[in-house]
């Protein structure tokens, strides 16, 4: 196995993240908010039909541009918020369930999406008197956990997206060290005057509070604020040293993965806040650094994606309900990400130039990557495919990949502008929203409950109140000394007699006073002795009871030690077994990785061969088509050539037939002249004597081409003797010529014919 593993020399891949199994899934909650029109007489292209459906109408002139192929479309959402819906109603339906999940240890993601100028920033941030989702979420969080917050620096973040817990003394030292030595900016106190731009965001009657908050835990809130500009991550809470001559540009941050396979921004500043006002003041300090610009469509157009992260750390109290349990494994961290995505835009409409064109291109590209990831997730879930989701193509999708993999709820608010100029962009936004609703995210599991008895904080508080009441009834603190107790009891001693001296010779007053003082001193000594005896007896009883308790606890401790020893032995055995199993698992994993590598290489080779076979088949089909074309062309060519040759041959044969007819006419004339007496002899005809198939001989005239005589055939056809024939009996040219010559030779084979070169046919 070791040889097989090191054969390829590859570093083993880290195992994939192990999420808690959850068979229940929830679809992504998509909401729609319609922005009011800027002008009353402006044309509107969106109509709210019901609380869950809207309808898009084509503006005037749109059908002409689209050749009349447009038809009105309807889109459904989880809930539609019209122009008259307030910020409170929007928060109650959208963000309030996410804040409840945050307080109960679950993660959440909420982002706004839409074209530029559709009201996304107003929905997320709001304005004075109309606070958005972000300030209302902060207000609800601190209204719910306010009485149970831990002191500052009890929870401490590390550099690896983790959370540590320390006692109050260390927290106090940490606070003094940070405030006095380190150049860490102090957070804004809630008592200071707020910025007038963010003052009075939420009215007191609009405040919300979560139900079912765990009173036996301590909480602390950390906030961070980042922006993604041109696909680079910048920390908006980072304090840069201001240099008027040469300002230092902000440093971009990188994404990392923690031990739980969650993505986080490395080196991002996390500020601990203790009130909603302080948290929103921190947010507003970062909001002023966000990249905005003035475009033709929006006076303050966001040029980056902003992400405000609220991280809630909570840890249970100890068994006494007084201090936080000093166990890092018991610290639970949940976070809520509020994302304000930059709006998609067309450079032709915004009139962007130079840097603005580059910003718009990066914004549109990141939104396109988001749509691609959503589309592939939807395809994998609906079609059962296993395509890789390209989260790493964009910082936005890479940062929130854990949420789509089942790390929390995901909600989206689609903001739309009903004006007719944004109709094309709104149509694309609606299609993306419709596709996003079909993506399902695994429901997060509940965190484990601590094993301590519930109600510890309440019992501890009741005990302290009862103790204070008892001390007040007894007249003082419980740890006062004995003289103070005696002085308290001295008021019950006999009163002193009058000690006024009117006569220097008075011998009664002084002895009486001395006697009274002696009496009081004797009573006091008796009281002190009785008190000491009672205290000694009480202390002896307490000591004996404590000795018995210690003896009993020692016995229990010995039993527990035995149990611990047996448990340790069992743990050692299980650890050895676990190590052995882990070793086997490592070997199997290495072997599996080797086999997977071989499988991938074989699959690649198979794909290569398939591609080669497809190319060969394509070449073969192309060659067949080419040969078929060549054959068709050749066949057509030869058909034309044959037709031409046949026509030429027919013409040639017609010419030959005409020549034969002319010669036959001449021959007829010669024969007729030979029968007429007194006519001069015809010109001599020469011919050759040829043997026939039947063994006879025939004369072949050299002056007439291919004239043959076949006497046997002529006789069998019943030709009349002595030249007698009927009209129409002979149709063949050769037959007529041979018969004519035979008749002439048979009638008179004289010297005249021989003189002309005609030989008599000899029979065998």
From TrEMBL:
Residues 27-439 form the Kinesin motor domain. One of its GO terms (cellular component) is microtubule. Keywords: ATP-binding, Cytoplasm, Cytoskeleton, Microtubule, Motor protein, Nucleotide-binding. InterPro entries: Kif23_Arf-bd_sf, Kinesin-like_fam, Kinesin_motor_CS, Kinesin_motor_dom, Kinesin_motor_dom_sf, P-loop_NTPase. Pfam families: Kinesin (PF00225). Residues 609-635, 670-764 are annotated as: Disordered. Its main location: cytoplasm. Residues 609-627, 723-735 have a biased composition (Basic and acidic residues). Belongs to the TRAFAC class myosin-kinesin ATPase superfamily. Kinesin family. PANTHER family: KINESIN-LIKE PROTEIN KIF23, KINESIN-RELATED. This is Kinesin-like protein. The gene is kif23.
């Amino acid at each position: 196995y070791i040889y097989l593993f090191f054969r390829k020399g590859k570093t083993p891949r880290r195992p994939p993240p192990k999420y808690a199994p959850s068979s229940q899934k929830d679809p992504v909650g998509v909401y729609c908010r319609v922005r009011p029109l800027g002008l009353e007489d402006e044309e509107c292209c969106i109509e709210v039909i019901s609380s869950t459906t809207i309808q898009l109408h084509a503006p005037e002139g749109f059908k002409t541009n689209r050749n009349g192929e447009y038809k009105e479309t309807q889109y459904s959402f989880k809930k539609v918020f019209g122009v008259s819906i307030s910020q409170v109603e929007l928060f109650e339906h959208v963000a309030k369930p996410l804040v409840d999940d945050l307080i109960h240890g679950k993660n959440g993601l909420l982002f706004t999406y839409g074209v530029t100028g559709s009201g996304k920033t107003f929905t997320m941030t709001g304005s004075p008197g109309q606070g958005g989702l972000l300030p209302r979420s902060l207000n609800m969080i601190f209204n719910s956990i306010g009485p149970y917050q831990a002191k500052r620096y009890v929870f401490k973040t590390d550099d690896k997206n983790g959370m540590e817990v320390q006692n109050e003394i260390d927290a106090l030292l940490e606070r003094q060290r940070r405030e006095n030595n380190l150049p860490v900016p102090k957070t804004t106190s809630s008592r200071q005057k707020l910025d007038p731009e963010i003052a009075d965001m939420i009215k007191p009657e609009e405040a919300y509070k979560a139900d079912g908050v765990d009173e036996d835990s301590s909480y602390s809130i950390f906030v961070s604020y980042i922006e993604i500009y041109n696909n680079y991550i910048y920390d908006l809470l980072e304090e840069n040293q201001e240099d008027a001559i040469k300002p230092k540009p902000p440093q971009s941050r990188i994404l990392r993965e923690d031990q739980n396979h969650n993505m986080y921004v490395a080196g991002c500043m996390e500020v601990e806040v203790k009130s909603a006002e302080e948290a929103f003041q921190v947010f507003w300090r970062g909001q002023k650094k966000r990249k905005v610009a003035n475009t033709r469509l929006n006076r303050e157009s966001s040029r980056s994606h902003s992400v405000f992260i609220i991280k809630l750390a909570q840890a249970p109290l100890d068994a006494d309900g007084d201090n936080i349990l000093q166990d890092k494994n018991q610290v639970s961290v949940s976070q809520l990400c509020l994302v304000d995505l930059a709006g998609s835009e067309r450079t032709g409409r915004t009139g962007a130039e130079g840097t603005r064109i580059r910003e718009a291109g990066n914004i549109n590209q990141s939104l396109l990557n988001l749509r691609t990831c959503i589309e592939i997730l939807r395809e994998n879930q609906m079609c059962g495919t296993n395509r890789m989701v390209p989260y790493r193509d964009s910082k936005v999708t890479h940062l929130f990949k854990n949420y789509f993999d089942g790390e929390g709820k995901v909600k989206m608010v689609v903001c739309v502008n009903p004006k007719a100029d944004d109709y094309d962009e709104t149509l694309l936004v609606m299609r993306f929203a419709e596709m996003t609703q079909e993506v399902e995210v695994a429901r997060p599991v509940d965190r484990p409950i601590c094993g301590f008895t519930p109600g510890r904080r309440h019992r501890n508080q009741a005990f302290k109140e009862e103790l204070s009441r008892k001390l007040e009834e007894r007249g003082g603190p419980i740890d006062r000394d004995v003289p103070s107790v005696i002085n308290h009891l001295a008021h019950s001693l006999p009163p002193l007699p009058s000690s006024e001296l009117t006569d220097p010779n008075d011998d009664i007053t002084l002895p009486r006073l001395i006697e009274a003082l002696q009496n009081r001193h004797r009573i006091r000594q008796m009281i002190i002795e009785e008190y000491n005896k009672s205290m000694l007896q009480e202390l002896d009883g307490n000591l004996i009871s404590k000795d018995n308790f210690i003896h009993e606890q020692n016995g229990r401790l010995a039993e527990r030690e035995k149990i611990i020893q047996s448990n340790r032995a069992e743990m050692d055995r299980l650890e050895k077994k676990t190590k052995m199993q882990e070793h086997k698992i490592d070997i199997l994993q290495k072997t599996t990785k080797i086999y997977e590598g071989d499988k991938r290489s074989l699959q690649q080779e198979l794909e290569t061969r398939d591609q080669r076979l497809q190319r060969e088949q394509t070449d073969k089909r192309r060659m067949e088509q080419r040969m078929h074309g060549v054959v068709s062309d050749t066949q057509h060519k030869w058909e034309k050539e044959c037709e031409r040759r046949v026509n030429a041959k027919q013409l040639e044969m017609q010419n030959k037939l005409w020549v034969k007819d002319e010669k036959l006419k001449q021959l007829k004339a010669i024969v007729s002249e030979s029968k007429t007496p007194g006519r001069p002899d015809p010109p001599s005809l020469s011919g050759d004597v040829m043997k026939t198939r039947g063994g006879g001989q025939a004369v072949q005239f050299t002056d007439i081409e291919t004239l043959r005589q076949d006497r046997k055939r002529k006789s069998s056809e019943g030709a009349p003797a002595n030249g007698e024939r009927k009209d129409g009996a002979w149709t063949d040219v050769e037959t007529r010529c041979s018969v004519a010559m035979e008749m002439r030779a048979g009638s008179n084979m004289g010297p005249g014919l021989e003189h002309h070169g005609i030989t008599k046919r000899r029979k065998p």
